[in-house]
């Protein structure tokens, strides 16, 4: 048992920080699952080091088998698809206006999204706050803020 402890003490910390690589072709828009990644012995800057960093995220680009899974190539899974009818909400003090619109792109929670108002045919910018709901105007939270 003591020899096992000595092995962990003598191994440099960087050797324990393996990068994750793809086990299969992960296409853009695929959601990463536990079987899609495996630890690899080489440390690659910018690459994920633990499965919990990437599982449930969506690939923004194609990631080929054996290639490092870079955190910059992933993002939150889309909750709104292009051309989906969404509900837009505008809040200003006690005033709240609800309207329907068509999403002009795919988007995940917190992503900026352009929506075409179905009644006026005007395009407005908003932020996805939940599946099928986009905050527009002054009710839209700051992008990147919590």
TrEMBL record:
PANTHER family, alphabetized:
FLAGELLA BASAL BODY P-RING FORMATION PROTEIN FLGA
Q: Keywords of this protein's UniProt record, alphabetized?
A: Bacterial flagellum biogenesis, Cell projection, Cilium, Flagellum, Periplasm, Signal
**Function text:** Involved in the assembly process of the P-ring formation. It may associate with FlgF on the rod constituting a structure essential for the P-ring assembly or may act as a modulator protein for the P-ring assembly.
Which GO terms of the cellular component aspect does the record hold? periplasmic space
Q: Which Gene3D superfamilies match?
A: 2.30.30.760
Classification via InterPro entries: Flagellar_FlgA, SAF, SAF_FlgA
Query: What biological-process GO terms show up in the record?
Result: bacterial-type flagellum assembly
Indicate the secretion signal residues: 1-17
Where does the UniProt entry say this protein principally localizes?
A: periplasm
Q: Which organism is it from?
A: Roseinatronobacter monicus
**Where found, per UniProt?**
Periplasm
The segment(s) forming the SAF domain are: 17-75
Q: Which family does it belong to?
A: Belongs to the FlgA family.
Question: What name goes with this protein?
Answer: Flagella basal body P-ring formation protein FlgA
Look up keyword Signal and say if it applies: yes
- Note whether Signal occurs among the keywords: yes
């Amino acid at each position: 048992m003591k020899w096992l402890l000595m092995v962990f003490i003598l191994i440099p910390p960087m050797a324990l920080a393996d990068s994750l690589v793809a086990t299969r072709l992960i296409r853009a828009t695929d959601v990463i699952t536990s079987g899609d990644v495996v630890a690899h012995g080489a440390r690659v800057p910018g690459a994920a080091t633990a499965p919990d960093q990437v599982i449930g995220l969506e690939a923004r680009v194609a990631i080929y088998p054996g290639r490092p899974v870079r955190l910059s190539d992933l993002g939150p899974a889309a909750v709104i698809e292009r051309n989906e009818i969404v509900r837009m909400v505008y809040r200003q003090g006690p005033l709240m206006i609800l309207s329907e619109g068509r999403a002009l792109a795919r988007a995940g929670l917190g992503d900026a999204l352009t929506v075409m108002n179905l009644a006026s045919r005007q395009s407005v910018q908003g932020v996805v706050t939940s599946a099928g709901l986009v905050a527009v105007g002054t009710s839209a939270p700051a992008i990147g803020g919590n």
